[in-house]
């Protein structure tokens, strides 16, 4: 009820809110799956435009980086205009970016329209959808968020084979054109996100007072909004927190190696002699497994045995994910590639089910919004550089195995770093807490010593001793006089 009081109304926790969840499922599904599913077209684009592996990988990298970097701007726009127009705008940007990119004749052209314009559109869709859910739901918010976030693996399962079918029928240009039309459905999803209306009927006097208060505070809020958002998302005081620094370093190492195996998985399978549709289904298998692993990991992490050790569980998930990539180059047949896709989906789902929960565990609920804004901005750099670096290895060595070796080793190193440094961090926190607990006891002992020393000095001074006896005599007389 405290949160409901802050909102000024009681969320419905149902009703039209489920239509909002359906719309968020669509917009979030496109936001997370599109940069991955576009990798189906990369081989054809590379041959048509004469691009290298590292150059073609920049498309997904720029798109993901723009999606994450646009988070603070999207939040400001949502607070100012609401979720419905922002999601519609994001859907228009995504659709037009894909349609325009289908006429591209250079790789730079695709960088701008697919990467920058499309990535910014996905950012608008993502943040606005998450915000509107928090306004419609309170008690059932975990369920609503889970159903909305399930759009990522569901859409990845569908888009990967669909993109392969479109590629065979229309080529990569026609496929981008059709995909742009599909992404316009985000505008329909945004239309479902109508603003939340309070069901209370205030009197005319109350309504007039509210209007007057809003007009008085309007200019002040507009002036302070930019500064507040800057402080919220760029709070440099987090860099003084040892736990935050440890988490950030490990998280950056994971992000650097996380997306390159997804981008090049289909191309690697085709290079191993796998049929194109079967190669595309590997992404669908990964997304399908991810769909069930994320909620399952959340249930396990919420248990009484894992909850206090969630940072170590996160380290294990990273090491498991990296170990899968290290073993992938040893695979030579399609059945074993399917096994790799299953384990990849398990590891990927485990990490992303815990990645923000671990940050909340370190920072707490109050500091989490500022911390996650800063983390997503910093994550743009390893996300931007990871796939192109992996593609450069393919260009230099002419073999995909070095790509998987690099990503796996970086992720495993990040997991080991988190495991070791969290042991050190918890040890130092326990030591600091013991030191703080000793300080009050030492202060009490010092005050007792000072009191005893003062009494001894007073007894040693003759004048003070005489004053003390006079006071005692007066107190005795007063006690006799006062019944």
Compact description:
The protein has 483 residues and is mainly alpha-helical. The protein is 84% helix and 0% strand. It folds into 2 domains: 11-194, MFS general substrate transporter like domains (Growth Hormone, Chain: A, Up-down Bundle), CATH 1.20.1250.20; 233-423, Growth Hormone, Chain: A (Up-down Bundle).
What this model shows, in words?
This protein is mostly helical and 483 residues long. It has 2 domains: 11-194, Up-down Bundle (Growth Hormone, Chain: A), CATH 1.20.1250.20; 233-423, Growth Hormone, Chain: A, CATH 1.20.1250. The chain has 18 helices and no strands. Helix 2 runs parallel beside helix 8 (141-149) and helix 2 (17-37) crosses helix 9.
Features of this protein?
483 residues, Growth Hormone, Chain: A, mainly alpha, disordered C terminus
């Amino acid at each position: 009820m405290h949160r409901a009081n802050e909102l000024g109304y009681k969320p419905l926790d149902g009703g039209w809110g489920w239509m909002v969840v359906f719309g968020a499922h669509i917009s979030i599904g496109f936001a997370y799956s599109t940069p991955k599913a576009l990798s189906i077209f990369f081989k054809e684009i590379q041959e048509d435009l004469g691009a290298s592996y590292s150059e073609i990988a920049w498309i997904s990298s720029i798109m993901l980086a723009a999606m994450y970097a646009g988070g603070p701007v999207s939040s400001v726009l949502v607070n100012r205009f609401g979720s419905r127009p922002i999601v519609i705008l994001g859907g228009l940007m995504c659709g037009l970016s894909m349609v325009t990119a289908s006429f591209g004749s250079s790789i730079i052209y695709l960088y701008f329209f697919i990467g920058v314009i499309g990535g910014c559109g996905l950012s608008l869709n993502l943040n606005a959808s998450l915000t509107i859910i928090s306004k419609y739901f309170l008690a059932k918010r975990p369920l609503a968020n889970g159903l909305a976030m399930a759009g990522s693996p569901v859409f990845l399962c569908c888009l990967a084979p669909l993109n392969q079918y479109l590629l065979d029928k229309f080529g990569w240009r026609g496929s981008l054109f059709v995909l742009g039309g599909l992404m316009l459905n985000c505008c329909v999803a945004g239309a479902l996100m109508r603003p939340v209306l309070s069901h209370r009927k205030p009197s005319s006097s109350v309504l007039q007072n509210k209007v007057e208060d809003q007009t008085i505070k309007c200019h002040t809020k507009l002036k302070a909004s930019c500064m507040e958002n800057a402080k919220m998302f760029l709070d440099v005081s987090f860099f003084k927190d040892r736990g935050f620094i440890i988490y950030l370093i490990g998280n950056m190492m994971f992000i650097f190696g996380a997306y390159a195996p997804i981008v090049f998985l289909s191309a690697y399978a085709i290079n191993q002699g796998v049929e194109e549709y079967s190669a595309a289904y590997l992404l669908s298998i990964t997304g399908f497994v991810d769909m069930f692993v994320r909620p399952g990991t959340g249930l396990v992490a919420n248990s009484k045995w894992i909850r206090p050790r969630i940072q170590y569980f996160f380290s294990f998930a990273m090491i498991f994910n990296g170990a899968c990539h290290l073993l992938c180059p040893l695979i030579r047949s399609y059945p074993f590639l399917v096994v790799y896709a299953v384990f990849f989906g398990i590891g990927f789902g485990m990490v992303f089910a815990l990645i923000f929960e671990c940050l909340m565990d370190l920072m707490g609920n109050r500091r989490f919004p500022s911390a996650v804004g800063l983390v997503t901005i910093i994550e743009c750099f390893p996300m931007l550089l990871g796939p192109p670096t992996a593609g450069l290895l393919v260009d230099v060595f002419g073999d995909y195995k070095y790509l998987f070796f690099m990503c796996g080793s970086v992720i495993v190193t990040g997991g080991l770093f988190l495991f070791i440094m969290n042991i050190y961090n918890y040890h130092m926190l326990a030591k600091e807490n013991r030191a703080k607990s000793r300080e009050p006891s030492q202060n009490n002992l010092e005050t007792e010593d000072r009191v005893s020393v003062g009494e001894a000095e007073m007894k040693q001074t003759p004048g003070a001793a005489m004053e003390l006896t006079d006071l005692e005599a007066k107190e005795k007389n007063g006690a006799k006089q006062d019944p």
